Amino acid sequence: YTLKRGSYLISVDYEITNNGENDFSVFLYEQLKRTNQSSYNGMIYTFTGPVLSTPENRFEKFDYDDLSDKPIDVTSKDSWIGNMQHYFVAALVPRAQSEVKFYSKILNSSTYTVGFVTEELRVPAMSQNSISTTIYAGPKKQDVLEKIAPGLDLTVDYGVLWFLAKPLFIVLNTIHSVVSNWGWSIIILTILIKLAFYPLSAAGYKSMAQLRKVQPRMLTIKERYSSDRTQLNQAMMKLYKEEKINPLGGCFPILIQIPVFIALYWVLLESVEIRQAPFILWINDLSSKDPYFVLPVLMGLSMWFQQKLNPAPVDPIQAKVMQLLPIIFTIFFAFFPSGLVLYWVANNILSIAQQWRITSQIEKNQKTK
User: Fold this and answer.
1) pLDDT-based confidence at 305, cuts 50/70/90?
2) Cα separation of 59 and 81, whole Å?
3) First vs last Cα of the chain: how many Å apart?
4) Cut 0.85: pTM above it
């Protein structure tokens, strides 16, 4: 076993000596054993379990139930097998160009193994032969993993939006190389994203401001045609046409931005670099919840204030539901990693500033007319 200082990579080298008069064959096998573990940490879900990567199917995850129904049984070259969990991975990496059989076994109701068996290795009489493999057991750092084996960096599981998440992480990592604080890096990245989407956000907020302006007329129409849904819809459409308002204008720009925000969510959730990273004052670990719940409360207040800038829903039931959302989200976010909550607080504050500025400009232009 060869271990290097500062590295989580272990080189395993076998030397087999045949002192007999006849040739013999050996097979190398290695395996990892672990107990079945829930993929939920409170309300946060991150995959925990076995993974296999082959050239034909680069990076495949298996649930514990999958192993019971259909065990892993794959023969391939340039592949690896392992177990992953939030922030960490253990992987068995056979030597390149060596064809091996990968397998899994259920030992009992809570324990399983994954591993591989190499092809036959001949050891001639009165001679030696050798074989080597590699084991990685450590944090999921992308720049390290991608150099060890193809697809090993995919254990940093960004989900279906990985093509957006990876560039976001690169930008976040670049910012950190300058400011040396992951909390400020998250805030700066949030600002850059808001600037990139400023034209779209401005269009959405302008639409919301126009809806807010005609809201008294909308309520009057609703009262007048409360018993006739068809007349109500026709009157509403006529109002939108007269005022040149697109009722979906405030939603469409937001919908376009949602994939980016979801991708950033997974970047902040999956990046081991943020684990145990301090921010300022009482925030000593951005991967853990806020111990004093300050950030979740700020997030709830910012969400409530942002709602006040938007036109209230005409439907009273919908309006009551919207009033409850800041409270519900505050409770949810109280148990989220503080790095994620910091992102949402920064995003909400920037959205409030942007929306207030655009609304003020529209109202100012209307007064000058």
Assistant:
1) confident
2) 9
3) 80
4) no
